[in-house]
Amino acid sequence: MMNRVIVLATVALLIVAIAIPASAQDRKMEYEDYEIELMEWQERERDAKAGLEDCEEAKAALSGEIEAVEADIAAAWGEIYDMLGITEADVDAFADQLDDFARRLGEFGRLTPEQMFEQQDELMALETELDQLAMMPAAMLTQFANRIDRYRRDIDNYRSRMAGPRSIRYTVVRGDHLWGIAAKPAHYGDGAKWMRIYSVNREKINDPDLIFPDQMFSVPLDIDPATQYLVRNGDNLARIADNLWGNPFEWRKIYEANRDLIPDPNLIYTNTILQVPGRGPSSGTGGGGR
Predict the structure, then answer these.
(1) What's the CA gap between 34 and 32, in Å, rounded?
(2) Is there a single domain that holds both residue 118 and residue 187?
(3) Looking at the structure, do residues 44 and 75 belong to the same domain, yes or no?
(4) Boundaries of domain holding 138
(5) 251 Cβ partners below 8 Å, 6+ apart?
(6) Residue 284: what pLDDT?
(7) Degrees (nearest 5) of the Cα angle 51, 55, 58?
(8) How far apart are CA 218 and CA 210, in angstroms?
(9) Could you please report the per-residue DSSP string of 7-22?
(10) One domain, residues 76 and 130
(11) What is the maximum alpha-carbon separation in the chain?
(12) Which residues of the chain have pLDDT under 50?
């Protein structure tokens, strides 16, 4: 019995002795694998740092190139400004002028067609201002030239959207006369403005003191400043020509277009609506409604 116990104990000790070295061997292999993997990661880290250093060098080189290009661009702009006789401050100031112009033009564009017609002198003033801006040296720069062209297209678009002048169709009844028609509250409320009716119905009225029942007249409530001029107190043809075109010697253009209303070029009547070939820069003196 004792021998059997001794044998079993011996076998157990042998098993333990064999098992311990095997476990230690496994751990050794695991540590070696870990060390290998760690070395690989350390190598990758060294490579990454080296690559980062290369990137920093490339970044520094590119930054130098960018600075050189920016310096060349600044020099080129300086030469352009010198050729135009302007400075960078002038360019900035011109940009501010265009921004302010764009704001006011945009406000006009938000008006209704009827409001546009009523305020068309404002559009004409804006167009004149744009012409003046276009003559400034900075306007030759592409970025500004493109904006000015766009604003011209906007002005043309607003003019096409603008409502036409208002008028009332009136049928003559027995007992009517031009003074009485003009005095009607729905028209002018002022008989002295009868000349307006006569002016635009000249082909239907041979004698302003003689009109007939059933005649159909147009009673203009507005005039079109682009093609018409409303004569005011103190006006004469030279003054009107100066207002329309900036040249009083152009008066004959008005006279030739209105011979049937102007028998004597030295005598024109208040409230006459004259036809004009076109309007130049104007303060809007000839505009108006009732």
Answers:
(1) 5
(2) no
(3) yes
(4) 86-161
(5) 236, 237, 238, 240, 241, 265
(6) 39
(7) 140
(8) 16
(9) HHHHHHHHHHHHHHHH
(10) no
(11) 162
(12) 2, 5-8, 11, 13-16, 18-20, 22, 280-290
